[in-house]
Amino acid sequence: MEDIHDPSVGRYRSDVLQPSLSGSSRLVELRQQRRALEDELDALISVLESHHVDMSTPLLTADGFPRDDIDVAQVRITRTRVIRLRNDLKDLMKQMEAALHDHHASLRDAISSSASGELSSSMRLAAMPDAEGIAFATVNSVEDGSPAHEAGLSRGDKIIKFGDVHAENHQRLSRISTVVEQNQNRPIDICLIRDINGANARAQINIQLTPRSGWGGRGSLGCHIVPL
C-alpha cells in the first residue's frame, strides 16, 4: 500500500500550476500537469479503497468514537489531499480551457498568415490541388474537448501521415488503430493538409495528438477518420 505520509504524495499545489511557456508548448505543459494530478488522485483513491472506504464513508461509530477497524488518521489525511488535488485540477482545467482558446486562435492566425505569404515554421503553403505527400484519410468529425480537438484537428483535414502510417501502408486505416493503441498517453506526430478559406491554396500542418481514455467521450481520440 502506498504511504500517504511520503512527501511525494500530494506535492502538486495550485501555486505551482502556472505554466512558464506559451502557445502550443504551454498547452503541452498543462496536459502533463493534468496527467500528473490525475495519477496522484488515482493513487490516493487506491489508498482509500485499501481501507474499504470512500470519500463519504463514516469514520465514527454510532456512539461517536473513531472506528477501530480502519486507520482513521490515514483516511482523513488522504481525503484532505484528495479534496485539495481535485480543487487544483479544477483550476488547471480552467487554465487549459484558456490555453486551448489561445492555441486555436494562433492556429487560425498562422493559416491566415500563410495565405498571405508569411510562412510559419510549422506550416508550409502548397499549390493546389496537392501538397507534398499523398493524403489517404480525412477527418469527418471532431468532438469538443477531445484529444483531437485539443491538438487542433479540424473537420475536413486530410491526413498525409499518422505516426508511421501513410498512403502506402495504412491497410484501410487499420494501422491507425494499431498506432493509437500502442501510443496511449504518448504524442503521435501527424501531418495533414487543410484548405485555407478564401485562398486558392492548402496549408500543410504538423501537429501532435495524444490518445487518452477518460476524456469524457468515446474512444481515445474523439474524432472520426474515414478513408479517401
Summarize the SSE layout with pairings.
Elements: H1 23-50, H2 72-115, E1 123-127, E2 137-142, H3 147-151, E3 158-162, H4 174-182, E4 188-195, E5 201-209, E6 223-227
Antiparallel strand pairs: 1-5, 2-3, 2-6, 3-4, 4-5
Helix pairs in contact: 1-2
- Judged by helices, strands and strand pairing, the structural class is alpha+beta
What's the alpha carbon Rg, rounded to whole Å? 23 Å
* Helix content estimate: 25-40%
Order of helices and strands: HHEEHEHEEE
Placed side by side, the strands forming the largest sheet appear as: 1-5-4-3-2-6
**Main sheet overview:** 6 strands, antiparallel
Tally of alpha and pi helices: 4
Shape: elongated
Please report the first level of CATH classification, the CATH class of the largest domain. Mainly Beta
Q: Could you report the average pLDDT, rounded to the nearest whole number? A: 77
Give the uncertain stretches in residue-range form: 1-22, 118-132
How does CATH name the architecture of the largest domain?
Roll
- Please count the beta strands (DSSP E, at least 2 residues each): 6
Termini separation: 51 Å
Which band does the percent of strand residues land in? 15-25%
